[in-house]
Amino acid sequence: MKKEFRSGCPISSSLDVVGDKWSLLIIRDMLVKHKKTFKQISDSDEKIAPSILSSRLKLLESYKLIFKTKVPDNKKENIYLLTEKGIHLTPIIIELSLWGNSNMREFNEIDDIEGLNLDKTLIIQSVQDSYNAMLLNFR
Predict the structure, then answer these.
(1) Which backbone phi and psi does 66 adopt, to 5 degrees?
(2) For 80-129, how does the pLDDT look when each residue is reduced to its tens digit (9 = 90+)?
(3) Can you give the three-state secondary structure of 76-90, one letter per residue?
(4) pLDDT over 80 at 2, yes or no
(5) What is d(CA 38, CA 114) in angstroms, rounded to the nearest whole number?
(6) 3-state secondary structure of 105
(7) What is the rounded radius of gyration, in angstroms, for the C-alpha atoms of the chain?
(8) Is residue 52 within 8 Å of residue 22, measured between CB atoms?
(9) 3-state secondary structure labels for all residues of 28-63
């Protein structure tokens, strides 16, 4: 993937990578729901098209937010796992969840998320710990 940025601004550079409609949802599914395969990710409620999913996975991989490997007991199936860079997006995912929970209910039927009322730092740590524990099966 060709890496072109609109400017040197860190916000703009970040948005060039994860600012589209799908990238953060893919990362959310991997981070929070522990989805790892193309099929698992494509089965999300938002119904991402396979071509878009494939493109976003390649983009995220090119910026080292995720990496592709094989299932340990099935060398034919690819799995996608977050890198440390990808895991470091946890605070952004949590902030967007909190903001949406507080501000979008008047416009949409927002799902209740267990534990979202806890201290933000605890939520972030819990999500990261859970993902890192899951990763131990693949290292």
Answers:
(1) -135, 165
(2) 999 999 999 999 999 999 899 889 988 988 888 777 778 899 999 999 99
(3) EEEEEEECHHHHCCH
(4) no
(5) 26
(6) coil
(7) 16
(8) yes
(9) HHHHCCCCCCHHHHHCCCCCCCHHHHHHHHHHHHHC
Structure tokens at 132: 């890192």
| pLDDT of residue 21 exceeding 80 | yes
Q: How far is the C-alpha of 94 from the C-alpha of 7, rounded, in Å?
A: 27
Give the DSSP H or E segment for 123.
helix 120-135
The burial of 102, by beta-carbon neighbours within 10 Å (0-12 exposed, 13-18 middle, 19 or more buried), is given as: exposed
**Dist CA 34 CA 95 (whole Å):** 19
Helix-, strand-, coil-residue percentages of the chain, each rounded to 5 = 55, 10, 35
Going from the C-alpha of 129 to that of each of 30, 90, 119, the distances in angstroms are 13, 11, 15
And the tokens for 119?
A: 């201290």
